[in-house]
Structure formats: structure tokens, C-alpha cells
Design brief:
Helix content: 55-70%
Number of domains: 2
Largest sheet: none
Shape: elongated
Strand content: under 5%
Structural class: mainly alpha
Distance between the termini: 65 Å
Length: about 230
């Protein structure tokens, strides 16, 4: 039985506000059959897709890309996603559960946020309501304002924010600080590194996009600092 079948089978408990919180595994990257973690992340994604009042088919399709249910289980996944939207349990409950368990493993928490950004932008734009939702989820995950600023900038692209934000820096940083931040972030977000640290294969494309944004930000700052030095 797949994780999606099990989530649907246990949906009354997994998304019941009076039920016990889902159980999580100890590993940074949850095992494929970790129903508790998967249910909580689906809950976050489903709640986010309704943050602006409308859930589009594009967002549901993007969620399927992120979670990638196996062939034949697509309908189980859709039912789980729609069921999570209907529960009265708030998204903050899911975010706090995941944040408490994995706060010492920010790589996994950032992967979850990357997936949520991907789903939010699937219909062509990310609304202010969705951005507010994502910022609150990040806070429950334990990310600082500067860390969230960086994550937001790398997901929305270099044109959506200043290049310093993408590298997790404040304007005025030295070239040495910029170079150090670029090398660290490029290494942490390299697609091969994502797989090595246990991230799901479906996040490799997101990692490629983030790496492109990181490299573009570095190039822009380097160009600006070189021009100012003349």
C-alpha cells in the first residue's frame, strides 16, 4: 500500500483537529512511507493553495509534481489534498509540528518551503496572501527574517528582490563577504548535494533554479562593486 493510500485510509485521524499529532521519523529526510510527515506537508500545501481564496488546477498539478505520487495513485493523492483543505485544523499546527521536529535540520525545512513556493507560483503569480502565508510558515519553522528574505528571493528570482537578499546579505557587504556567501550557498544548493543530503529527487529542478538565481546575484553584485571601485 502506497503512502497516498495510507493517508486516505487514515485521513479521518491525520486531518482531525482532535486527533493526536502525526508521528515523525528521526531522520532529516523522512522515509517514503512516513505518513505523518507527508500528511503534515500535504496539509501545509493544501492550506496554502487556499490562502488567496482560490485553489487552481495548476496548483494541484504542481503539488503532484512536488510530492510525485506513483502511477495509479494520483487520485488517492488528490483526495488527500482536497481533504486537507477542508479540515478546520489550521496550517500553523502543521508548520509548528514540522518546525519543532526538524529545527536542527534547516535543509529539510527549506526544501519544504521551496516546494510551497513552487506550488504557490504554479498559476503564474504569487499573491500577497500567499506570501503572508509563506512568511508565517517560515517563522514557525524557526527561520529569521533575513533567512526568509533569502529563501523568498532565491525562489522568486533575482528580479524579484535585490541580489544581496538572494545571498542572505545586507547591502554594503564587502566583496570578500559576498564571495564567501556565494560559495557557501552554491555548495548547499547544488543539485547533487541535494540528493546526497536526502532531499527528494523532485527537488533537483528547484535546486537548479535556485543555483541560477544565486549565480546571477553574485555576478550582479560583483559587477556593481567592480564599477564602484573604479
Amino acid at each position: 500500500m502506497s503512502v497516498w493510500s495510507r493517508i486516505v485510509e487514515l485521513a479521518a485521524r491525520a486531518f482531525d483537529p482532535e486527533a493526536d499529532p502525526p508521528e515523525f521519523n528521526e531522520e532529516c529526510a523522512p522515509r517514503p512511507n512516513d505518513v505523518g510527515f507527508t500528511a503534515a506537508v500535504i496539509g501545509l500545501a493544501a492550506k496554502m493553495s487556499k490562502a488567496d481564496g482560490v485553489t487552481s488546477e495548476a496548483e494541484i498539478a504542481a503539488a503532484a509534481q512536488v510530492f510525485r505520487p506513483p502511477p495509479g495513485e494520483e487520485e488517492h493523492f488528490r483526495r488527500a489534498f482536497m481533504l486537507a483543505q477542508q479540515t478546520v485544523l489550521g496550517f500553523d499546527s502543521y508548520a509548528k509540528q514540522i518546525g519543532r521536529k526538524y529545527r536542527a535540520r534547516p535543509c529539510l525545512l527549506e526544501d519544504v518551503l521551496d516546494g510551497l513556493f513552487h506550488i504557490a507560483g504554479a498559476d503564474g503569480s504569487i499573491t500577497p496572501a500567499e506570501l503572508d502565508y509563506l512568511e508565517e510558515v517560515a517563522a514557525h519553522f524557526g527561520f529569521s527574517e533575513l533567512e526568509y528574505r533569502r529563501i523568498k528571493a532565491t525562489n522568486l528570482g533575482p528580479d524579484a528582490g535585490d541580489p544581496y537578499a538572494i545571498l542572505g546579505l545586507l547591502p554594503g557587504a564587502t566583496m570578500e563577504e559576498v564571495r564567501h556567501a556565494w560559495r557557501r550557498m552554491a555548495a548547499e544548493n547544488h543539485p547533487d548535494r541535494m540528493l546526497q543530503r536526502g532531499a527528494p529527487p523532485e527537488f533537483v529542478e528547484i535546486a537548479r533554479e535556485k543555483t541560477a538565481a544565486i549565480n546571477a546575484a553574485y555576478a550582479k553584485i560583483r559587477e556593481e562593486l567592480s564599477a564602484n571601485a573604479k
